[in-house]
Amino acid sequence: MARFRTLDDIGDVKGKRILVRVDLNVPMEDGKVSDLTRIERVAPTILELSGKEAKVILLAHFGRPKDGPNPALSLEPIARAASDVFGRQVAFVGDCIGEKARGAIFSLNPGDVLLLENTRFYKGEEKNDPEFAKQLAADGDIYVNDAFSAAHRAHASTEGLAHLLPAYAGRTMQAELEALEKGLGNPAKPVVAIVGGAKVSTKIDLLMNLVKKVDALVIGGGMANTFLAARGVDVGKSLCEHDLAATAKQIMIEAAGAGCAIILPSDAVIAREFKAGAANEIVSVDAVPADAMILDVGPNTIGTINGWIDRAETLVWNGPLGAFEIDPFDKATVAAAKHAASRTKAGKLVSVAGGGDTVAALNHAGVADDFTYVSTAGGAFLEWMEGKELPGVEVLKLK
Ligand code: ADP
Ligand code: MG
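# magnesium ion complex -> structure
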């Protein structure tokens, strides 16, 4: 991996104005932040810079404002939540450029933290307009990006600014990039990927990229049905994208060409209804009744998957193996997650996972903390798994 600048390279920041791009796009309920994870994740960078007596100026977006300022999408309530999390006051100013922002920045003392209003209140943000980026840059001496989850977008505050000021990766961005490098960039081999979830259609690029990079690809979840059907298996009423049979075959051909083993389920847990506690049974995948649907992979398949986890030095995981939200169709996902976690704890495996539902599934299994790294970055994580360059990361690399 090309090296990138981190806070270790930043030098003396005392009294300097540092524009720090963070992800504060947190879930809100009744005007209150309902999950503090994203705020907690950026705390190390902010406290480090503040501790070194920089003037810390936070840039962030919130939601998707359509036409200019929208009070419902103000970052003000998040400044209050951030003050609690950081254990020091986070001031707020209701603009991110211009006189008002400049005034607030001018009155900062070394070590102070200030949150600027939602960058997306200006159209120039998402357009990565150079004029808007210049206005942002005018209020800072240094730029730090700690928002990996926004790095797949080339916006003024995630990409444009890095061309205008000395640019560094924050601690959270650094941790994410280092973990991802261990996952697919320069992994210990053999590398095994587990991909599950609902549909092939949302993960074609991801599957195509993985078969070129990993030694074995385990396919589970609803998307395995599409692969099984492409091989002529009757999957009954299971979730299945029959129109993607050709794509599934192509992925299997690419895998064969690249020497990547494809592991499909051999047995399945089936039910007649998609609901918790539905009557269910275990059948071989070639014996799925016409009126039944596959909601999880079966015990034989779990054994096979755990065997691949045992052989792997590196595991990359996106997508649950079954409909884990409803009991008892979480069994395979929980079993494989626990197995990967114990191999990781034993020092035998590097395990990297990500994806909205995958994070939920690993939390449900109670093992998220035991993986080497669990990315909460969503879209940026998936684009990384697709092998795409992330503009917000590219611009931090040393050329
Ligand atoms: P992620 O958000 O981690 O990328 P996805 O969104 O692709 O994962 O997929 C998660 C969804 O896939 C879950 O809601 C889960 O219920 C569903 N799923 C997994 N296996 C099946 C199955 N056999 N039938 C129907 N849905 C499934
Ligand atoms: Mg999802």
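# post-check
The chain has a mean pLDDT of 96.
Residues 37-51 form the longest helix (15 residues).
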